[in-house]
UniProtKB/TrEMBL annotation:
<feature type="domain" description="Penicillin-binding protein transpeptidase">
    <location>
        <begin position="298"/>
        <end position="508"/>
    </location>
</feature>
<dbReference type="InterPro" id="IPR012338">
    <property type="entry name" value="Beta-lactam/transpept-like"/>
</dbReference>
<dbReference type="GO" id="GO:0030288">
    <property type="term" value="C:outer membrane-bounded periplasmic space"/>
</dbReference>
<keyword id="KW-0808">Transferase</keyword>
<dbReference type="GO" id="GO:0004180">
    <property type="term" value="F:carboxypeptidase activity"/>
</dbReference>
<dbReference type="GO" id="GO:0006508">
    <property type="term" value="P:proteolysis"/>
</dbReference>
<comment type="similarity">
    <text>In the C-terminal section; belongs to the transpeptidase family.</text>
</comment>
<dbReference type="InterPro" id="IPR023346">
    <property type="entry name" value="Lysozyme-like_dom_sf"/>
</dbReference>
<comment type="pathway">
    <text>Cell wall biogenesis; peptidoglycan biosynthesis.</text>
</comment>
<keyword id="KW-0645">Protease</keyword>
<keyword id="KW-0378">Hydrolase</keyword>
<dbReference type="Pfam" id="PF06832">
    <property type="entry name" value="BiPBP_C"/>
</dbReference>
<dbReference type="Pfam" id="PF00912">
    <property type="entry name" value="Transgly"/>
</dbReference>
<dbReference type="GO" id="GO:0008658">
    <property type="term" value="F:penicillin binding"/>
</dbReference>
<dbReference type="GO" id="GO:0008955">
    <property type="term" value="F:peptidoglycan glycosyltransferase activity"/>
</dbReference>
<dbReference type="InterPro" id="IPR009647">
    <property type="entry name" value="PBP_C"/>
</dbReference>
<dbReference type="InterPro" id="IPR011815">
    <property type="entry name" value="PBP_1c"/>
</dbReference>
Amino acid sequence: MRSLLALVVALWAVALGNDRLTAWINATDLPLLVHATSPEVRDRKGTLLRAYTIEDGIWRMAVTPDQVDPLFYRMLVAYEDKRFWDHPGVDILAVTRAVAQRLWHGRLVSGASTLTMQTARLLEHGTTGQWQGKLRQMRVALALERNLSKDQILSLYSLLAPYGGNVEGVRAASLIWLGKEPRRLTPAEAALLVALPQAPESRRPDRHPKTARAARNRVMLRMAGEGVIPLAAARSDALDPSPEGRHPMPLLAPHLSDRALALGPGRHDLTVDATLQQSLENLARTHARRLDPRLSLAIVLADHQTGEILASVGAPDYAGTENQGFVDMTTAQRSPGSTLKPLVYGLAFDRGLAHPETLILDTPVHFGTYAPQNFDGEYRGELSARRALQLSLNIPVVRLTETLGPAHVMAALRAAGLKPALQGGSPGLALSLGGVGLTLEEMTQLYAALANAGTARPLHWLRGTALPAQQRLLSGAAAWQIQSILADITPPPAAGSAGRIAWKTGTSYGHRDALALGWDGRFVAGVWIGRPDGTPVPGAFGAALAAPVLFEALGRASPRAEPLRPPPPETLITTNARLPAHLQRFGPRAETPALQLTFPPDGVTLQVASQGVPVKLRGGIPPYTLMADGAVLATGLMRPQFLAPVAGPGFTTLSVIDSTGQSGRATVELH
């Protein structure tokens, strides 16, 4: 009892300015005032995308007074420490009253702990059961008041107050128990956040919701009695249900957030738009439910005018196991398939090798031992470069690549800021058909350059990033010509009319990757679908799988679609007949290989099956016409192999004529 009286006397001495006691306070070793907080990743407007726990799995979110509704602080001070703004850290009047009540009643009737003392206890993880511990808290509280402002002390309390389980601090508590930032709180919500730290475990809303609600209501009624909130608000809010479980912490852009966290702890502000990110994550999940569960899906969407990535979806389900959702498929190197073809055509236009209306051959061709074939095995003969790109034919683009030189195409990829990966040493002609490793993010960056009048700028997702200078990849005229060609491709069903979006699909060798990339007047997007482990997906085509996702993604970014760029003044827009002579056809006409009927050989005897006689051709320009003994059997044949519907027995002369008038024939005996 004497120690209690001595404590009161000492505190009054402090209040009256005793020099020795003042020196004792000034000599206090303060606990560590800086504490680890959960790393945060935020969007372009400051919205929380994702946060990470600190050591021991604790949620402790950085908080400043301006991030919390002032109502919370008014309630907190009124409920816990009425004279907080006036006392020096210890409320001497409250201590005197508590000691007097203890002497009179023989037991503790009311406490005297201030918010500053509670903060001192939180800083030192101390207890309040012994007077020695209480004395230490008072000394630290007095020292804190001499070193920190009242707002700083409130900030420390708001950061460290326990809220049950692994939750510390008012901001983490608001996100987990209320599912919202504490910037705007109702009286009931503020009262709950005031009540929980008094008994954080016994009042946990997920385990003891009735106890938490009762404590909340007691705070509200007392606050109404003291005029902090209206009595009507306290009575009406007391009827509101209190939380009965935890809200999940935000988990938007999880893969991109992981990349930001790898840069270090603290807060990372991204260029991402949280609303658009959420919309595209929902889009990815919706489409993924229609696919084989082993397939993943990735989306990148950016503003091609600024280079800012506005949404990045690495997988439809970050926690998925069957489709390896933990793998960020926006950064995985995969084959781009046919999506490199627009670059090759753009380079050819830019260097005066071709024009969109230039005629180019789609016929069988050999480059040494390399004999490219079209995806469908057919040949279209002579057609415009525009049509060849729209049909995504392989042979015309390989012809252009051979003239440009694969090294020149590879240099253009690097000039666009990409890091193409080759399995071999130097690039070959298959480069333009997807024979190189690139990421979806890189391909979207390439298409951003096509959309941005041929100027390449790095796509970036971290705000404040220092960016290298822009690079001229194509002339404005060549970039517009590519845009014009791709915008005329018929969109997927229910995607609207052509002309709004320039787009291209790709399917890699073995159906391992299905891609679609495209842009409107402001946004560029890329979509990838496949298996992260690279296993073939039979029947997977970019046009069927990825293209609908691409159009919907761009539609969610800009429902009306920003108009595409108009042609620059120097663009040559004309017909083939009005082109300069050297641009009317790509390569000499003499390069057309002679038509040969390689099977059946002339004079052979065949046992005829019911389907007919197999015919195989080499060279010539389709479409082909088939004749038997001078009678036309079929016209418009595009493939170099087919069945001739003739029956034996006897001798028959088979003739094939190509679109240029070349012919081949063989006389066979049929049994």
